[in-house]
Amino acid sequence: MKLSQNFVKTAKQVGHEEVAKNAQLLIRGGFLDKGMAGIYSYLPMGIRVISKIKNIVNDEMLNLGSQEILMSSIQNKEIWEKTDRWSDENVDIWFKSKLKNGADIGLAWSHEEPITQMVKSHISSYKDLPVYVHQFQNKMRNEIRAKSGIMRCREFIMKDMYSYSEDENQHMEFYNKVIDVYNKIYSKLGIGDITYVTSASGGVFTDKFSHEFQTICDAGEDNIYVHNDGKIALNEEIFDDETLLKMGFKKEEFTKQKTAEVGNIFTFGVGKCEELDLFFIDQNSNKKGVYLGSYGIGISRLMGVIVEIFSDEKGIVWPENIAPYKYVIIPIGNKGISKSEEIYDSMLKKGIEVVLDDRKESPGFKLKDADLIGYPYQIVVSDKTMENSENVVELIKRSSGEKLLLDWTTIN
Amino acid sequence: MKLSQNFVKTAKQVGHEEVAKNAQLLIRGGFLDKGMAGIYSYLPMGIRVISKIKNIVNDEMLNLGSQEILMSSIQNKEIWEKTDRWSDENVDIWFKSKLKNGADIGLAWSHEEPITQMVKSHISSYKDLPVYVHQFQNKMRNEIRAKSGIMRCREFIMKDMYSYSEDENQHMEFYNKVIDVYNKIYSKLGIGDITYVTSASGGVFTDKFSHEFQTICDAGEDNIYVHNDGKIALNEEIFDDETLLKMGFKKEEFTKQKTAEVGNIFTFGVGKCEELDLFFIDQNSNKKGVYLGSYGIGISRLMGVIVEIFSDEKGIVWPENIAPYKYVIIPIGNKGISKSEEIYDSMLKKGIEVVLDDRKESPGFKLKDADLIGYPYQIVVSDKTMENSENVVELIKRSSGEKLLLDWTTIN
């Protein structure tokens, strides 16, 4: 894209009511627009980042054998009543509305119940199991407070996956695979080394248990205790003498860290499917409840966490895998401008993700904007860089500030 | 995909409350799941069709110079009050809810107001215009009746585009381009020759005018009058003596046709932007209201219309461009099964969109299923087809029933 064609303008400041660093930077950089507290819209650069995170996650879900679906946001009260999750006392984040005939509807904050209802038409025998489905869907949650930017929104994009298995064995095989795959995803997103799997509640031997994926992040809302060997971490709720004794650890071997949850996985056991009347006939012709698991990754939340972690006083520093574009070309002077067009066209033809900053602004403005937006590499083209050879440009690495003169035809 | 890996099962029948042919076929074929009246979810085959329609539309929007964004579903009451479209008397399809603090919110049925609010940060001078943005977004509309399957839903996927221009000239240039591009889209979707642009209300010389794109379809909710020369059509509302006199036509030169609306485009003039306080400074330093247009295509509705048109007593007959997969391979007998695996692997490697029906079902069942799902081509592999040469298969064209023996290595 040529930036002169981009309708979005970056901003020096945002309204003082926006207190979260991630939202401040994303609004200033032109990735997001704020509708109201906890409600954001995605501008073109923001969509690109979201799409890249989605694609990384989707590829791994498909590799796991999951199939993509898309459930509605409008949900049926009756289904949620069956599992006693309709009332505001039990679930206090519902947005609810009414059809013209007065019937109550809910707006999706999760999908265990509707997806279980949907798969009922497709599961009757052990031969039909396991079933894995996932979606990228807008969730709406009526949060009391929404001050963490896109780390906790009233409307957000989530990947949720659901597994339907014959029994605990079949379930656990998949559940453990998901842990590995989630870790792989966080590595691809550049946060692998600061993300921990933590057992969230209960033990693995109870019917309902869960794990969280927690990333070290100052803006996070959680705390975990990381063992000094750097491999094990415990959630705050279970960091007690009893757990430590069971595991053979001492309190002083752990360091408390502020973290943001970037994923969670749940085991529901057979209870929920039984409540929703989803049974199957096993190999011995016995009727049994289906074993349910659910697996979430907040896509927009991840974008927020990544910005909190990968940013400095100048702006965002995107990991290459999810940067909106890898390169920005910044021309200086007339010779720089015509050369830049040539470089831009050639890079586009090679399929490289590049923008050309052809706006009528000063080089200083453009460099500052590039720092704010956080392209991994800036390519400066000027009389000075072309002094000795007309193919020489200056490549500035956003993360380190490192500068390098090189032949632009070698960039890929 | 190997169909043994697909969790979705086709169905012989659907509940009698589903009266629309498009939804009946799409549910039976395993594309859709019905949550409640007017609320559907998309299963894997359904997602594929939706994605293909989206991609065709998105490519053309990007070619027009529009940028993709994604607005929130949750909307601010205050913005809609400014244009007097919040009250249920003026807009009778709102779904509304409340934040925890009691503040009213609306669920997106359209986006003119919020998008105009959003672009205010980015438009101040004539140099910033025109601006074109579009999105693929879930719209929610509280319809009283919802009996047309996915042709009229309470929640549906829509492409909506918005244009912000300096004046009527700049606006009309784009508006007319959109008409051409919409026609191109309908041609790509296989309904070009039965889709008409109709002037919907007012004339082109009033401030507010609009056009509709109407496709001849028995299940449609509209009527148009098509001129015998096949090039001009008029909406029912403006098919009167006055209009005919102006245009120099006679009533008897027109034939009434039942149609479904597959797109609409609106000119708002400067009124809405003025109400929302979006002005710009023109070349002569005068403050002016921005000229607004909006351009919709119902993506899920199109899928429904296409199924209504391209289907027969056996099932759906997808146009090639948007079929979930182009080919299904149906093996018969042991030799057919092993050969099919070879053909499937080879076609996948070539990047051909193909499924292998490796389910433990009879060939008759699989052929019926293939007819129902509507793959454009069925490839039958059996002892019989391989009689003379082991590379010979039978290719059945879904639309005509035509059968052809040919060497599978020539298929692409």
Automatic annotation (TrEMBL), chains A, B:
Reactions that this protein is recorded to catalyse: tRNA(Pro) + L-proline + ATP = L-prolyl-tRNA(Pro) + AMP + diphosphate
InterPro entries according to UniProt: aa-tRNA-synt_IIb, aa-tRNA-synth_II, aa-tRNA-synth_II/BPL/LPL, Anticodon-bd, Anticodon-bd_dom_sf, Pro-tRNA-ligase_IIa, Pro-tRNA_synthetase, ProRS_anticodon_short
Keyword Coiled coil in record: no
Q: Which UniProt keywords apply?
A: Aminoacyl-tRNA synthetase, ATP-binding, Ligase, Nucleotide-binding, Protein biosynthesis
User: Top-level EC class, please?
Assistant: ligase
Question: What protein name is recorded for this chain?
Answer: Proline--tRNA ligase
What residue stretches are annotated with the Aminoacyl-transfer RNA synthetases class-II family profile domain?
38-319
- GO terms assigned for molecular function: proline-tRNA ligase activity
In which domain of life is the source organism classified? Bacteria
Gene3D superfamilies from the UniProt entry: Anticodon-binding domain, Bira Bifunctional Protein, Domain 2
| Coiled-coil ranges (or none) | none
The species this protein belongs to is Candidatus Vampirococcus lugosii
EC no.? 6.1.1.15
Organism lineage reads as: Bacteria, Candidatus Absconditibacteriota, Vampirococcus
What SUPFAM superfamilies does this protein map onto?
Answer: Class II aaRS ABD-related, Class II aaRS and biotin synthetases
Methyltransferase in keyword set:
no
The protein's matches in PROSITE patterns, at most eight in alphabetical order, are given as: AA_TRNA_LIGASE_II
